[in-house]
Amino acid sequence: MPVLPILRRLGVPLLAATALYTAAASPAAAEGPGWTAEPVAGPAAEARPGGGRPYFYLSGTPGTVLEDRLALSNTTDRERTVTLRGADAYNTAGGAFAVRPAKGSSGAGSWISFGAGATVKVPPRTRAVVPFTLTVPPASPPGDHPAAVVATEGGHEVGVRVHLRVSGPALAALTVEDVAVRGRGSAAVVAYTLVNRGNVALAPDLALEAGGLFGEVPGRTGRALPVELLPGQRVELTEPWPAAPVLDRVRVTLTVTAPGGARAVAAGSRWLVPWDLVGWTGAGLLALGGTTAAALCLVRARRPRPDPPDGAPPAAGPAPAPEHELTGASR
Q1: DSSP letter at 229?
Q2: If you average pLDDT over each of 41-45, 59-63, 98-102, 312-316, which comes out highest?
Q3: What is the pLDDT of residue 312?
Q4: Which among 62-66, 188-192, 294-298 has the top mean pLDDT?
Q5: Residues 91, 230: contact at Cβ < 8 Å?
Q6: Which residues, 6+ apart, have CB-to-CB distance to 127 below 8 Å?
Q7: Do the domains 4-166 and 174-272 sit in the same CATH topology, yes or no?
Q8: What percentage of the chain carries pLDDT values higher than 90?
Q9: What stretch of H or E contains 71?
Q10: pLDDT higher for 140 or 325?
Q11: Mapped to the 3 state alphabet, what secondary structure does 4-65 carry?
Q12: Are 166 and 59 in contact (CB under 8 A)?
């Protein structure tokens, strides 16, 4: 599956590991305070407006040594000392693109080397071009291996994405898990988990269908998700569902597709009940029941007792206890 159309379509920003700098989608350069880092424009990029590349795109077979160049531009009146390194890329739990810290990379980020040029002094008003290599290990599996080149200066980090494709069979596959409806009414959302089970990055589309006890419920037509799902990554997402019914038992079905033939379907169900209305109704019924019971007790307490008829002997009381004669004689 071509990676370039996916990236043009998504324009997903890079989050650096510690400073979490958001790179601009256009122009291609990731801007720092007074300096920029971007790929050096190649022959194909020179024909594009601006002549820049938004990322590094490298491909090769296992065991290949790939080369490219990074441009550092100092736009200030003082010298800048920039440190360069490679880093693995991954998806955060929410789907953002992020890079590992300096000692946390063991994948494609660790294959990047700047040699003696890992620390670069850039004079004022100067553009420095720094070459680097990416050595693909002989046993590397085929598919996409996302990484980044990270430039650090004065505590500020800037990342430039590296998309590496290792030659071999490409598999586009994903699953949808943990589908659940949360909230209600216009605030309802459908929560779910996407997992990339293949070896290439995916740009998924989502469609939501729903049905209830009272018939079909309005869902959402297919749309592109604002996430690039990297190989082996798991992200937890939510889809707004403002058309959710107020009172019904609904079953939602999510269908996710991606270029390359990836498709997954999963469903979840839930009772949607306006509990605030139910609570007030229950409280009202309890209050009404209590009032009714109290009224009945009061009526019974105030009911007059009937008088005995004329000439009727008084009601006999309990018989008195017999009296024993005390004579002192034994019995």
Answers
A1: B
A2: 59-63
A3: 55
A4: 62-66
A5: yes
A6: 71, 72, 73, 74
A7: yes
A8: 53
A9: strand 65-74
A10: 140
A11: HHHHHHHCCCEECCCCCCECCCCCCCEECCCEEEEECCCCCHHHCCCCCCCCEEEEECCCCE
A12: yes
Task: Name the token pair of 265.
Answer: 């379907």
> How high is the pLDDT of residue 244?
74
Whether residue 44 contacts residue 91, with contact meaning beta carbons closer than 8 Å, is answered with no
Residue with tokens 């019914």: 245
Superfamily classification of domain 174-272:
Immunoglobulins (2.60.40.10)
Terminal C-alpha separation, the chain: 121
Q: Where are the domains of the chain?
A: 4-166, 174-272
Lowest mean pLDDT among 148-152, 160-164, 220-224, 292-296: 292-296
CA 306 from chain center: how many Å? 77
Pairwise CA distance, residues 97 & 104, whole Å: 16
- Mean pLDDT of all residues belonging to the chain: 79
User: For 247, which DSSP code?
Assistant: S
Residue 70 near residue 39 (C-beta atoms within 8 A): yes
The closest of 13, 8, 11, 27 to 91, measured between CA atoms, is 13
Q: Which helix (H) or strand (E) holds 295?
A: helix 275-301
Q: What is the DSSP code string of 196-227? A: E-SSS-B--EEEEEEEETTEEEEEEEEEE-S-
Q: Which CATH number fits domain 4-166: 2.60.120.1200, 3.90.330.10, 1.10.3720.10, 2.60.40.10?
A: 2.60.40.10
- Give pLDDT, residue 21: 35
Task: Tell me how far apart the alpha carbons of residues 96 and 229 are, in angstroms, rounded to a whole number.
Answer: 9
| C-alpha radius of gyration, the chain, whole number | 38
Only one residue has tokens 């209600």, namely 184
Q: Please give the residue that has the higher pLDDT: either 191 or 28.
A: 191
pLDDT, average across residues 246-266: 90
Would you say 45 and 55 are in contact if contact means Cβ atoms under 8 Å apart?
no
